[in-house]
Amino acid sequence: MNILKNKDNLNNFKNLGLKNIVVRFAGDSGDGMQLTGERLAKLSAIMGNDVLTLADYPAEIRAPAGSLGGVSGYQMTIGSTDVYTTGDKVDILIAMNPAALKVNIKLMKKGGIIITNSATFTKRN
Question: What burial class does residue 30 get, using C-beta atoms within 10 Å of its C-beta: 0-12 exposed, 13-18 middle, 19+ buried?
């Protein structure tokens, strides 16, 4: 079954009672956060949602992997109604490593969802 052709799956935010949701992907520069975010944004738009995006590039050029200054991100608001901002607080954070989590945790809404790549975490961090 193609979910894009099934009218019941279009605009699922309305089905959940949500007008919009803010999603942020974060990881080391080069981890593909912008590409992943762009793909989700395009899919969401195809499904009939309004989408606004913001790419967040690292402060340091060629920062060492896992460093705070090398974290890049891609944030978007996906909405069942018109969207005018990428959002100040994040509903869902996808953090690919401890540095990405540390840099972006302050952006989380209370009760938000954090998804991490647990393979990159150690007892130390």
Answer: exposed
80 close to 18: Cβ distance less than 8 angstroms: yes
| DSSP SS3 for 12 | helix
Say what the pTM is.
0.79
What is the Cβ-side half-sphere exposure of residue 41, based on CA atoms within 13 angstroms? 21
User: 18-45 pLDDT, tens per residue?
Assistant: 789 999 999 988 788 899 999 999 999 9
Pair 90, 107: CB distance under 8 Å: yes
What are the pLDDT digits (tens) for 38-66? 999 999 999 999 999 999 887 666 655 65
Kindly state the tokens that stand for 11: 């605009």
Neighbours of 111 (CB within 10 A): 6
Beta strands in the chain (DSSP E): 20-28, 50-56, 71-79, 90-95, 108-116
Structurally, at CATH architecture level, domain 26-118 sits in: 3-Layer(aba) Sandwich (3.40)
Asked whether the beta carbons of 78 and 46 are under 8 A apart, the reply is: no
